[in-house]
Structure formats: structure tokens, C-alpha cells
Amino acid sequence: MFEKLHLSLTTPALLFPAISLLLLAYTNRFFSLAALIRNLSSDKKPILNDQIKNLHKRIAIIKRMQESGVVAFALCVVSMILLYIGFNEVGSIVFGLSLLLLLYSLILSVIEIRISVDALNIHLKEISKK
Q1: Phi-psi group of 52: left, alpha or beta (phi > 0 → left; psi -120 to 50 → alpha; rest → beta)
Q2: What's the whole-model pTM score?
Q3: For a Cys-Cys bond, which of 30, 35, 67, 76 suits 98, CB 3.0-4.6 Å?
Q4: Mean residue pLDDT across the chain
């Protein structure tokens, strides 16, 4: 099945800038969420239970996003090493795993964005009550 598959060394290298930018975006989301949590805890306003649940979910998802992105990056490097030393079939399989992890990371990103929008809707609901 993988005998006909030929992957050049430059193919995994094409993902380096994309994965790096993705990890930077994930880190920015994490830092903004951490700042939000710190602001919530320092304010004198009561924090809703729904807000806390939402924040817990988002933190867990961002953690998984970052982990899968880093592992995808590492597997991309491993696939390049394998291709470089001549293990083309194994290198191709490892690169495929890297792509799957990157896809998983992107799906988690969409889920986290949806949860973030839910958090904004909770906030808007509270503002409209006033």
C-alpha cells in the first residue's frame, strides 16, 4: 500500500511555518484566557457557575490543542529525519500521523471558538438583565 507513496524531504518542511503560527495563535488564546480568569478573580463581581464551567472547558481544550499541535510538529520533524536517512515508507506514515494530529488540533480549535462564543453570549445575557 505504501510502496508507491513517495514523499520528498521538502513536503513535511512545508508545514513548519503553518504549525509554528498555529502554536503561536493557540498560545495567544491561552494567555488571553488566563488574563480573563485573573481579571474575574480580582473583580468584586460575582462569578456565575456557567462562566466557571465554560472556562474549565476552554482551558482543557486549549491544553489539548497545544499538545496535539506540538506532537504534530515533533512527528513532522521525525518524518523528515526518517526521509533523510532513507526510510521513506515509515517517514510517510509518520508524516500522515502528523497531519492527522494537526487536523485534530484544528477541530479542537473550532470547538474552543464555539465555547468562547457561548461565553460571550452568557456575558451578553447578564448585561441585558441590567
Answers
A1: alpha
A2: 0.81
A3: 76
A4: 86
3-state secondary structure 40-94: HHHCCCCCCHHHHHHHHHHHHHHHHHHHHHHHHHHHHHHHHHHHHCCCHHHHHHH
CA 93 to chain centre: 22
Could you tell me the residue range of the domain that residue 95 belongs to? 10-129
Q: Indicate the length of the chain as a whole number.
A: 130
What gap in Å lies between CA 72 and CA 43, rounded to an integer? 38
Cell numbers at 85, concatenated = 536517512
DSSP-assigned letter for residue 35: H
Q: Is residue 5 part of a domain?
A: no
Span 67-120, pLDDT tens digits: 999 999 999 999 999 999 989 889 999 999 999 999 999 999 999 999 888 878
